[in-house]
């Protein structure tokens, strides 16, 4: 019987996360990139990984279907999930930014249109600036929006900057730094205290070691 269920998002953070667990001596021998399996047990049958869509990680953890999760701060901010964010894992670094055409200025427009995969993040950012916006929720290829007149600007993650550059867009404003976070279900934090606390401590020592 597994004691701890970990929600892992498919994609960017997948291999980083598995490497981090490997450094703790926790390995998932059945995990292969091409597999269609969604549940993996570690050798000792203490930990179980459930592989989910990255944007669903906060939901699995908030609802207690997973005890802990590894998730980008971007996804966490957008979800607004009621979970404990216990550790910045340091990997998966990128940033949230407003981007648009190089000559774009907010000017005197009464309302600007913002396309984003992260409408809540966009709304919060502009709300703090005292600006009202109309958000258009997209699910990908967001850079297209200002190019074909769907929106004035986009709020998106920028990692290498290549996607913006190749589409003739620039960062207009930085919003916040992003990296992978360890999140914990609030009830699990109380009921599985020992196991979860030691996992957090071990992960923290790896993060600190890698920063040196
Ligand atoms: C993300 C993001 C940008 C791109 C930024 O998209 O939405 O499009 O990566 O990365 P870069 O600065 O290194 O170019 P993702 O790759 O997740 O694809 P998507 O558009 O299908 O969501």
TrEMBL record:
The record's section on InterPro entries has: ATP_PRibTrfase_cat (IPR013820), ATP_PRibTrfase_CS (IPR018198), ATP_PRibTrfase_HisG (IPR001348), ATP_PRibTrfase_HisG_short (IPR024893)
Q: Name one GO molecular function term.
A: ATP binding
Q: Which reactions fall under this protein's catalytic activity?
A: 1-(5-phospho-beta-D-ribosyl)-ATP + diphosphate = 5-phospho-alpha-D-ribose 1-diphosphate + ATP
SUPFAM superfamilies per UniProt: Periplasmic binding protein-like II (SSF53850)
Query: Per the similarity annotation, which family is this?
Result: Belongs to the ATP phosphoribosyltransferase family. Short subfamily.
Instruction: Give the organism, scientific name.
Output: Salinibacillus kushneri
| Lineage: superkingdom | Bacteria
The places in or outside the cell where this protein is found are:
Cytoplasm
- According to the UniProt entry, the coiled-coil residues are none
The record's subunit annotation is: Heteromultimer composed of HisG and HisZ subunits.
Location of the ATP phosphoribosyltransferase catalytic domain: 53-204
What EC number(s) are associated with this protein in UniProt?
A: 2.4.2.17
Q: In which pathway does it act?
A: Amino-acid biosynthesis; L-histidine biosynthesis; L-histidine from 5-phospho-alpha-D-ribose 1-diphosphate: step 1/9
What does this protein's UniProt record list under function?
Catalyzes the condensation of ATP and 5-phosphoribose 1-diphosphate to form N'-(5'-phosphoribosyl)-ATP (PR-ATP). Has a crucial role in the pathway because the rate of histidine biosynthesis seems to be controlled primarily by regulation of HisG enzymatic activity.
Write out the entry's keywords from A to Z. Answer: Amino-acid biosynthesis, ATP-binding, Cytoplasm, Glycosyltransferase, Histidine biosynthesis, Nucleotide-binding, Transferase
Please identify the protein, giving its name as recorded: ATP phosphoribosyltransferase
The record's top EC class is: transferase
UniProt GO cellular component terms: cytoplasm
For this protein, the record's HAMAP family field holds: HisG_Short
Q: Which GO terms describe its biological process?
A: L-histidine biosynthetic process
What's the entry's take on its domains?
A: Lacks the C-terminal regulatory region which is replaced by HisZ.
């Amino acid at each position: 019987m597994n004691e701890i269920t970990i929600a892992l998002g498919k994609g960017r953070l997948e291999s980083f996360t598995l490497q981090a667990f490997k450094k703790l001596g926790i390995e998932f021998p059945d995990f292969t990139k091409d597999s269609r399996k969604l549940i993996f047990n570690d050798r000792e049958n203490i930990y179980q990984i459930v592989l989910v869509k990255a944007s669903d990680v906060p939901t699995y953890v908030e609802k207690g279907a997973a005890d802990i999760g590894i998730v980008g701060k971007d996804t966490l901010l957008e979800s607004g999930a009621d979970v404990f964010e216990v550790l910045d894992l340091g990997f998966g670094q990128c940033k949230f930014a407003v981007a648009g055409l190089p000559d774009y200025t907010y000017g005197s427009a009464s309302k600007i249109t913002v396309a984003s995969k992260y409408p809540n993040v966009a709304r919060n950012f502009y709300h703090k600036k005292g600006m009202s916006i109309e958000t258009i929720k997209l699910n990908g290829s967001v850079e297209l929006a200002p190019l074909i007149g769907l929106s004035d600007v986009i709020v998106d993650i920028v990692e290498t900057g290549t996607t913006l550059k190749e589409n003739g867009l620039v960062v207009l404003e930085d919003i916040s730094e992003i990296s992978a976070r360890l999140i914990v279900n609030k009830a699990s934090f109380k009921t599985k205290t020992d196991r979860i606390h030691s996992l957090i401590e071990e992960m923290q020592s790896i993060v600190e070691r890698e920063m040196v």
